[in-house]
Amino acid sequence: MSIRWPRVLNPTYLSQIIRTQKNPLKALDIFNEAKSKYPKYSHNGPVYATMITILGTSGRLKEMRDLIEQMKQDSCECKDSVFVSAIKTYAKEGLVDEAISLYKNIPQFNCVNWTQSFNTL
């Protein structure tokens, strides 16, 4: 299925596009392609959250880790809920140490409130 890209892309529209993808890797390709197709476009916290959730729930942990690292490099302002999804995924997969490590590294991200993540642990 080919994507019909809009003239101007916004994060809400990109979230809708990637949510409709059945293949999580195709969704990730679209997520990554957006920045090259639209040089002035930047992912925001909700778009990262959507993509992280898609990757986590489909068991694509390596890709999820890489995306979390990309989010940190982008200094993307995000809400605590982004980390909740990843922490739940790690816990479900039995990767408690990874969940704790992610929680401890939240201060390195552009995120100011960690209450939800703490409660999830």
From TrEMBL:
InterPro entries: Mito_RNA-Proc/Resp, PPR_rpt, TPR-like_helical_dom_sf
Record GO terms (molecular function): mRNA binding
Residue spans of the PPR repeats: 44-78
Domain of life: Eukaryota
Pfam families: PPR (PF01535)
Keyword annotations of the record: Repeat
Family stated for the protein in its record: Belongs to the PPR family. P subfamily.
Protein name: Pentatricopeptide repeat-containing protein
UniProt source species: Trifolium medium
